[in-house]
Amino acid sequence: MRIEIPERKKLVHQMHIPIRWGDMDGMNHVNNTIYFRFLEIARIDWARSIGCQPNPQGDGIVIVNAFCNFFKQLEYPGDVLVKMYVSDPGRSSFESWGTMERPDEPGVIYASGGATTVWVNFPTQKSMPLPDWVRRHLE
Fold it and tell me: Which of 33, 83, 125, 127 has its CA at 20 to 30 Å from residue 25's CA atom?
């Protein structure tokens, strides 16, 4: 299945993640929870690449909502190519999106998902305005 990413979404990161034998379930395909893990791994890798390290005593990103749509079954062995997009920066939040495909089947989307991401102050657990340096990566 081919999924078109609307122009308002900006491709910011992509990475290959190996599918592990332990990612499989009793039906011999990747368990649905692992797709969320793939999205998380790509989101964290992107955040680190822009200098957004988790800091429990400071500010950073948290996920307040996440979803995933499943189109084809991923199976071991192989890799998954996760492409990450961002959109809709607001005062303190933005949307993150991801598509998952096999590198040996370019353009065939196995799953896609996303998350609403909020910038918070961890000690106060309150949302904060997105810093300008983060906003520059989103626009």
Answer: 83
Residue 117 predicted with pLDDT over 80: yes
Give the pLDDT band of residue 139 (cuts 50, 70, 90): confident
Q: Would you tell me how many other CB atoms lie within 10 Å of the CB of residue 63? A: 15
Residues contacting residue 121 through CB under 8 Å, at least 6 positions apart: 58, 59, 128
The domain limits of the chain are 10-138
What is the second-level CATH architecture of the domain 10-138?
Roll (3.10)
Cα separations in angstroms, 78 against 18, 91, 102, 108, 112: 6, 40, 8, 15, 18
- pTM of the complete model: 0.89
